[in-house]
């Protein structure tokens, strides 16, 4: 199994990088979803014991704080004149940025309008789960660029960053559909462990159950409270694109990297809160 091979190599790399490992998972999606698990060094206790309670971190505050608007300092609104004027709602800054709403977002793949749509769609979802606005990270963008350039729909990760992948066929990049419809709504609808730890493997209690994780891992990374920044790259891989090692027509490829990364085993309860409001009306074109 491909993921097992990658898991093995990731474990080896982690063992070299540091003596103490903490489990982490990275996620990706398209029509089918694949997931890869890696370990990254951590200063917390090793997770070798059967119980996955990370003693370093208090797990008490589970209840979602229902403050409607995130209170952290908003990311600087990169005021690109015409786009800012085209942006609609007066509450847009509740999500840290103004952005150009509408179906035109399907064409965005670079520049300020792209970044602002990426941030807005992340931050609206996060606000609904008591998580503060993400800011754009050039470091994450740079690492995402490196990963995207492979055009292979595989994770290429760096220490200290999480990663979500999305790729689609057709003429449109449709990055906001990937974020809001696929990663957020599609997975939040089936996630039932808000404020709790999701299921662990029956054979290894220090691991997540991967079969369920594959169905929700993007949304938990998106909503992860301790994550503070994101940087994405969306490119047209054209005929170069491969998925699962085979040539693919799904060449409109998006890679988002997150810092600090989410999806740490044992830390879901305090990082992924229940939605405070309905999100069924959220759309990629908002
Ligand atoms: C983008 O994705 C949405 C949601 O899946 C879809 O309805 C829409 O047609 C897509 N847009 C384009 C231009 O492909």
Automatic annotation (TrEMBL):
Stretches assigned to the SCP domain: 113-266
Keyword vocabulary terms for this entry: Signal
InterPro entries with a match to the protein in the record: CAP_dom (IPR014044), CAP_sf (IPR035940), CRISP-related (IPR001283)
Pfam families: CAP
First and last residue of the signal peptide: 1-17
Top-level taxon in the UniProt lineage: Eukaryota
Region (Disordered): 42-81
PANTHER family referenced in this protein's UniProt entry, alphabetically: CYSTEINE-RICH SECRETORY PROTEIN-RELATED
Name listed for the protein in its UniProt record: PR-1-like protein
